[in-house]
Amino acid sequence: MRYLVTGGQMKQVDRYTIENIGIPSLVLMERAALAVAEEVMKHGQKTDRIWVLCGNGNNGADGVAAARMLHLKGYKVFALLVAGKEKGSSEYLTQVSIAEHTGVNLAGFSDLIPGTCDILIDALFGVGLDREILGRYREILETIRRCQPKFTVAVDIPSGIHSDSGQIMGIALKADITVTFGYEKLGTMLYPGKEYSGKVLVADIGFPGESLERLKTEYFTLDPEDVKQLPKRPAYSNKGSFGKVLVVAGSKNMSGAAYLSALAAYRTGAGLVKIFTVEENRTILQTGLPEAIITTYEAGEAEAGTERFKELLVKQCEWATAIVLGPGLGQEGYVRNLVEEVLANAYVPIVLDADGLGTIASNPELTSYFTENIIVTPHLGEMARLTGSAVETIQKQLITTAREYADRFGITCVLKDAVTIGALKDQRTYINGSGNSAMAKAGSGDVLTGIIAGLLALGLEESDAAAFGVWLHGRAGDMVKEKQGEHSILARELTEEIHSIR
Ligand SMILES: NC(=O)C1=CN([C@@H]2O[C@H](COP(=O)(O)OP(=O)(O)OC[C@H]3O[C@@H](n4cnc5c(N)ncnc54)[C@H](OP(=O)(O)O)[C@@H]3O)[C@@H](O)[C@H]2O)[C@@H](O)CC1
Ligand SMILES: [K+]
């Protein structure tokens, strides 16, 4: 697990380290600049034309220091000082003074003769960027972009990307590599910032652990080594040891979603999976997934809300350790009854997805059944229906949208996008780094519900099941893509990779 920070949190880490621990700001900066210079030396040669674009805050000061280090190693460096010294930070003034004493080639931006730039070090704005880039700064960034640097190393974060949201603040520079300090910023994990950052390298510049621990560390991501934290299968066990997943899914002419969800739950480790679906799906599901138990109902009895139907459903809910509710249920009138009965009668974790969420959006009064064991997994369109916000608005504020929805009901909200967010009920927020665009295909979401339910059945609590589930799902997608390329992934193949990850 890796913590991620907002720009504001990073500033608090800086301040605490400087003021309470006593590591001078310039000492941190020296290590930051060295990390940048070393990265440039790995990619460049002494004959390369290296430009360093420097603002007059501490990001610019990092740039000036890196320019000095490269200059002293014999590299051809040209530091472009974009702003005057008047409002420069004290570290910036110190770095410029040192650079002057060591003979670094310093110039104002107006002295730039546009030409070949082999390597650009982008040190205009770091976590201090707090507003839209306009006027002269915008023109400077446009000029730099027109020069088409062959390789760009961003200092801390690409200039123009907001460190909390990953949004472009009017204009931004694209980097091949971003050398970030201490902890990765949310802005390089979230689109479009993620795309602008290239490869992100986190440089340890000496922040002691306690400088972060004392903050409320809310944001985190998972890496391949974290898979070790998933529960192991004890040797002495039976199918009952691993929990029972009830998949309430499927409708007439729609059996695939139930199949995929159930299959994924089994592949993730559930001991028993039962599909509760319409009678029409019995044969096809029994044939496709003979390992699953199939219990069926008639749409008519669900519509009428007969006693037999209610009793049958209550029995299923009592049987389950975890429930998937929604995939492929369709939008027939009876679905509302079905969803309400499950929400009212289940006392175990429920993964609510797809048509289950559609039912909630059309019948918002059903949210009164939401308890802390609900995990909702909407994509942006579903979230738009649930909240009444536009998709474009949600996309610009994934984290806040997911967090607000989760907190409103005290539930866990997994908001699915190119970077999926898990606003967990325990107040931590998971930012997913696995997965790829090839997974944007029918059935992929059904597999995710099954994986999360499988983890719940193994005993993970809702927050961990949601975060690990999203990660495993993306990782499986990455592995399938590696084998068969971008275009031909099928949702069911995601389930076939789960074993190689776990
Ligand atoms: N010891 C430390 O603290 C360490 C810090 N480190 C480094 O410091 C960086 C943070 O430094 P920072 O806080 O000085 O902010 P920074 O990103 O340089 O930007 C501030 C400048 O930008 C300006 N500005 C902002 N928005 C603007 C806009 N839209 N359009 C125009 N101007 C705009 C703003 O102007 P102002 O608002 O003052 O008018 C100010 O001049 C961090 O990312 C890391 O690289 C590391 O060395 C580790 C040790
Ligand atoms: K930068």
From TrEMBL:
**Reactions accelerated catalytically:** (6R)-NADPHX = (6S)-NADPHX; (6S)-NADPHX + ADP = AMP + phosphate + NADPH + H(+); (6S)-NADHX + ADP = AMP + phosphate + NADH + H(+); (6R)-NADHX = (6S)-NADHX
Query: Which Gene3D superfamilies does the protein's record reference?
Result: 3.40.1190.20, YjeF N-terminal domain
Question: From what superkingdom does this record's organism come?
Answer: Bacteria
Q: Which residues cross the membrane?
A: none
Q: Give residue ranges for domain Rhodanese.
A: 46-97
Biological process according to GO:
metabolite repair; nicotinamide nucleotide metabolic process
UniProt keyword annotation of Chaperone present: no
Using the record's annotation, list all stretches that form the YjeF C-terminal domain.
222-502
**Which Pfam families does the UniProt entry name for this protein?**
Carb_kinase (PF01256), YjeF_N (PF03853)
Q: Any binding details for the cofactor?
A: Binds 1 potassium ion per subunit.
Does tRNA-binding show up as a keyword for this record? no
Question: Which cofactors?
Answer: Mg(2+); K(+)
Q: What does this protein do?
A: Catalyzes the dehydration of the S-form of NAD(P)HX at the expense of ADP, which is converted to AMP. Together with NAD(P)HX epimerase, which catalyzes the epimerization of the S- and R-forms, the enzyme allows the repair of both epimers of NAD(P)HX, a damaged form of NAD(P)H that is a result of enzymatic or heat-dependent hydration.
Please describe the quaternary structure of this protein: Homotetramer.
Q: What is this protein called?
A: Bifunctional NAD(P)H-hydrate repair enzyme
Taxonomic lineage of the native organism: Bacteria, Bacillati, Bacillota, Clostridia, Lachnospirales
